Amino acid sequence: MLSKQQARAFFLGGTLVTFLIFIGLTIYSFSDGNDQTNYENITEQVVRGKVIWEENNCMGCHTILGEGGYYAPELTKVVERRGEGLIKAILMSPVPWEPNGRKMVAYGFTAEEADDVIAFFNWIGEIDLNGFDRIVSPLAKDKQLLNNQSEN
């Protein structure tokens, strides 16, 4: 059993060690060799794509980097998975797209707007995920598990 003085010393020592670890990891994370943000590849087209993404509330249904709604597929590596052609066709479609019984709003983007959104998706897709799973939606993981089981 610790005395009050020992408990206080233990608390203050533990707090100091934790604070120093936090500061060290923060400095390490922001050092030049560890930047994984991909910010140097942001172009005007990527910015326009991000604006279109936000103005149309795409995160209301989709997720990117684990943030957003879980109604529709996760889009962090969507260009890698689906290809630019399919994505552009979906974005420019004049009729709602209904994969797996879920209806996506027909935004009817112009070719330039669709290219901007694809540039944004390409930029997001090039971010180093540091080993995290590229499919973060629990719904998508369940579907992938079912697909893997049916293939075996």
Automatic annotation (TrEMBL):
**Keyword Heme in annotation:** yes
GO terms (molecular function) for this protein are: electron transfer activity; heme binding; metal ion binding
Pfam families per the record?
A: Cytochrom_C
Origin organism lineage: Bacteria, Pseudomonadati, Bacteroidota, Flavobacteriia, Flavobacteriales
Q: Where is the Cytochrome c domain?
A: 44-125
Keyword Metal-binding recorded: yes
From the record, give the transmembrane residue ranges: 9-30
Cite the entry's keywords alphabetically. Answer: Heme, Iron, Membrane, Metal-binding, Transmembrane, Transmembrane helix
Q: What is this protein called?
A: Cytochrome c
Tell me which SUPFAM superfamilies the record gives: Cytochrome c
**Which InterPro entries does UniProt cross-reference here?**
Cyt_c-like_dom, Cyt_c-like_dom_sf
Provide the species name. Aequorivita flava
**What superkingdom does the record give?**
Bacteria
